[in-house]
Amino acid sequence: GRRRVRLGSGGRRGRRVGGDALRR
């Protein structure tokens, strides 16, 4: 996925939208 902006455990936008879910 795009781990640049959306990290697995609370990245920049990961924490807002689950992160791990968007990572995939």
From TrEMBL:
Origin superkingdom: Bacteria
Ranges where the record places region Disordered: 1-24
Comp. bias regions, Basic residues: 1-16
Protein name in UniProt: Uncharacterized protein
Species this protein is from: uncultured Thermoleophilia bacterium
